[in-house]
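Changelog note: in this version the structure field was regenerated for every chain. One regenerated record is shown below for reference.
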Amino acid sequence: QVQLVESGGGLVQAGGSLRLSCAASGSISSISTMGWYRQAPGKQRELVATITRGGNTNYVHSVKGRFTISRDNAQNTLSLQMNNLKPEDTAVYYCNAVAAAWLNYWGQGTQVTVSS
């Protein structure tokens, strides 16, 4: 089992920045890829960014150049630095971890609201 706890969401004006964090605990040695997903009202959950244990990253096109995903394997934390935020970035952001046997774990989510 893996437990994930997000923090760092909030309300920010367009053009501002926020940093999300996710603390992992439990069977952390089994975790391979970690990532951030988001779900806006009335929309499906979508991938924002992922990072492998080795540090390879992948971003959805809409956040490239604005968001940076990072991971500290020693501290068992995942972060998402979000700059130049836009109203369309408003969503609940979820931390995700893929563990052994392709098991997916999710955090409880943290709200990010960007006002125009």
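Spot check on this record: The first strand starts at residue 2 and ends at 7. The chain has a mean pLDDT of 96.
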